[in-house]
């Protein structure tokens, strides 16, 4: 039998490695930014086009490379960061594995220009699919410029898996934001499709947070700081009242390296227990300085996960630091009763045992009242009530009511209808026998048995089809707001909202782009008029990011239907239940809600008998 195991060709091995390291354009941006930061640059410029699919450029003013280093950096496992195994456990730089540039070169067309302080001229290298096409001297400034064109041009299957340009651009913005927060002392710029998105000056972390998010210390953020023998923790946590209903503004940095850690995230979130709802997420930027020997950064290809030697202790320290920061600056107001004779203790002066001298309560009634105000204290319900009899006497005095009328007569003119008309109306309203169960389900009798309808799922389906019609050809009416609301978004969300503006306007939103990532909301759909505009837009954007496998119109319609649907616990009248059921069964698809829940279920008489026997 012949031998079957062979060594892979170098370019094939590089493409396989690229599958681990280079997942999308944002992965290229991350590796290039890491190299620029490790080169001790004070200015890093990022330029992208078409979501990074056709053009990515990173320019830095760092140390640069010699002609030999410029050629060697494209080889697999070539790095200046480590020389022996022990160095892995003392890593303080961002990149170190020596696979990033080789992986990029294997799946793209790359141009490198670099020059160090010692050389008179720089070096130009052109590479396509791991093959060096040109290397020559070139005039350039000190530092390095890397251009990556046509990512995955030689692997069409991988390119087809990339998302739309706005989605890929948002991922690039995320990587840029993480690098900018981890190194606030470095100036960063970002241009997208020839437009400047960020121009961040070098400074400290509070300044960088304000530049990126607009949050200020004192107004939005609380300082968290503690030095221990295990680690030094410093950073900022958001005030509870500014928590959002979307994720994305939570950052952990360990030795200036961005990481994701659900365990540490739980430590911070637990500090907000009973201060925010479960659907809200606070802002935080936490920087952890720890001995490199106490962590292992080589556990994930993208280096976003870290193993800690003493994770439990770090959890307790982090939780204590954040809880202290919130506790010192966020005080829950306490009620201290006043000793003064004021309206705050008015109720205590009119109790059954402490009544005015000029008033004797009726012993047959448990209700004690003040004859001057018409307000009394009900012993049975322990609450203030209105003395309706006295109020009626006052109304009679001023001719508001005639003596023959009663309080029950005020309202709709039902007394104009005959007894027979009222009886017929009640019979029609109850003909379908609707009953609401626990404010969640609608029970209706049908010929074969009974039907149970999920109120929220049914309403979601009705609204979803209504919104889809609006997006296709029937724009919805807008409920104009008396006072327009101005909201500010980060650059990635602002770009995404601009991409969705035409569609959400068809759904009844009146939104204008004011520039500078700021928008004015002048009107919203009528059923959403009572929602907070900032939270509403945040939720639409966050949920849209998570949706996949559907068209843009389907995603938007599904998100708003879920947001506007009637929630469990809402009491519906017989007429409202009747309307909801009629609209549900008029839908083209009425069995499932857009989120996949069953809208209704029927039980026959025989099935009910089986349940009871």
Nutshell version of this structure?
With 613 residues, this protein is α+β, with helices and mostly antiparallel strands. It has four domains: 10-200, Heat Shock Protein 90 (2-Layer Sandwich); 212-329, 2-Layer Sandwich (Ribosomal Protein S5, domain 2), CATH 3.30.230; 368-411, no CATH class; 441-600, MutL, C-terminal domain, regulatory subdomain (Ribosomal Protein S8, Chain: A, domain 1, 2-Layer Sandwich). The strands form six sheets. The protein has an eight-stranded mixed sheet with strand order 5-4-3-6-2-1-7-8.
Report on this model:
This protein is of the alpha+beta class. The chain folds into 4 domains: 10-200, Histidine kinase-like ATPase, C-terminal domain (Heat Shock Protein 90); 212-329, 2-Layer Sandwich (Ribosomal Protein S5, domain 2); 368-411, no CATH class; 441-600, 2-Layer Sandwich (Ribosomal Protein S8, Chain: A, domain 1). The strands form 6 sheets. The protein has an 8-stranded mixed β-sheet with strand order 5-4-3-6-2-1-7-8. The chain has a 5-stranded mixed β-sheet with strand order 9-10-13-11-12. Strands 19-20-21-25 form a 4-stranded antiparallel β-sheet. Helix 1 (10-21) crosses helix 4 (100-106), helix 8 runs parallel beside helix 9 and helix 12 packs across helix 15. Mean pLDDT is 79; it is low at 332-336, 338-417 and 422-431.
């Amino acid at each position: 039998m012949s031998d079957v195991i062979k060594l892979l060709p170098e370019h094939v091995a590089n493409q396989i490695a690229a599958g681990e390291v280079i997942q999308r354009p944002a992965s290229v941006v991350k590796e290039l930014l890491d190299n620029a930061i490790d080169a001790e640059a004070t200015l890093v410029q990022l330029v992208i086009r078409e979501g990074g699919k056709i053009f990515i450029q990173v320019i830095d003013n760092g140390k640069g490379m010699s002609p030999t280093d410029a050629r060697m950096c494209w080889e697999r496992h070539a790095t200046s960061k480590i020389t022996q195994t022990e160095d892995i456990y003392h890593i303080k730089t961002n990149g170190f594995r020596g696979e990033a540039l080789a992986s990029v070169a294997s799946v793209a067309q790359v141009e490198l220009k670099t020059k160090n302080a010692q050389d008179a001229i720089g070096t130009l290298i052109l590479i396509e699919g791991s093959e060096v096409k040109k290397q020559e001297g070139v005039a350039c400034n000190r530092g390095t410029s890397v251009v990556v064109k046509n990512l995955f041009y030689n692997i069409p299957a991988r390119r087809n898996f990339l998302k739309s340009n706005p989605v890929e651009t948002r991922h690039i913005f995320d990587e840029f934001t993480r690098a900018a927060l981890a190194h606030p002392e470095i100036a960063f710029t970002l241009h997208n499709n020839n437009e400047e998105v960020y121009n961040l000056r070098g400074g400290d972390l509070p300044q960088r947070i304000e530049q990126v998010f607009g949050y200020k210390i004192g107004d939005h953020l609380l300082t968290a700081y503690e030095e221990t023998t295990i680690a030094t923790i410093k950073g900022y946590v958001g005030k509870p009242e500014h928590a959002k209903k979307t994720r994305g503004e939570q950052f952990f940095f360990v030795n200036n390296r961005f990481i994701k850690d659900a365990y540490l995230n739980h430590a911070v979130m637990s500090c907000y227990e009973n201060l925010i709802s479960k659907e809200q997420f606070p802002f935080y930027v936490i920087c952890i300085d720890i001995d490199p020997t106490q962590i292992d950064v080589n556990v994930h290809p993208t280096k976003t996960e870290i193993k800690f030697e003493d994770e439990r202790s770090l959890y307790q320290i982090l939780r204590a630091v954040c809880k202290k920061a919130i506790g010192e600056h966020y005080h829950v107001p306490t009620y201290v009763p006043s000793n003064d004779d004021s309206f705050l203790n008015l109720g205590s002066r009119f109790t059954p045992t402490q009544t005015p001298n000029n008033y004797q309560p009726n012993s047959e009634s448990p209700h004690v009242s003040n004859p001057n105000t018409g307000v009394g204290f009900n012993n049975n319900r322990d609450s203030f009530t209105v003395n309706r009899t006295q109020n009626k006497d006052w109304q009679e005095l001023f001719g508001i009511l005639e003596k023959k009328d009663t309080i029950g007569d005020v309202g709709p003119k039902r007394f104009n209808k005959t007894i027979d008309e009222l009886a017929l109306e009640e019979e029609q309203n109850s003909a379908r026998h609707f009953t609401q169960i626990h404010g969640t389900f609608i029970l209706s009798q049908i010929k074969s048995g009974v039907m149970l309808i999920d109120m929220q799922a049914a309403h979601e389906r009705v609204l979803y089809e209504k919104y889809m019609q609006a997006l296709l050809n029937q724009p919805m009416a807008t409920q104009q707001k008396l006072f327009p609301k101005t909201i500010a978004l980060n650059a990635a969300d602002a770009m995404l909202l601009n991409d969705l503006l035409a569609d959400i306007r068809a759904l009844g939103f009146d939104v204008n782009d004011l520039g500078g990532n700021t928008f004015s909301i002048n009107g919203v759909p009528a059923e959403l008029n009572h929602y907070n505009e900032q939270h509403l837009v945040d939720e639409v954007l966050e949920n849209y990011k998570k949706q996949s496998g559907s068209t843009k119109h389907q995603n938007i319609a599904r998100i708003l239907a879920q947001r506007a649907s009637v929630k469990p616990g809402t009491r519906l009248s017989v007429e409202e239940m009747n309307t909801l059921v009629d609209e549900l069964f008029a839908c083209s698809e009425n069995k499932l809600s857009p989120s996949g829940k069953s809208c209704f279920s029927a039980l026959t008489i025989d099935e009910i008998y089986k349940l009871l026997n």
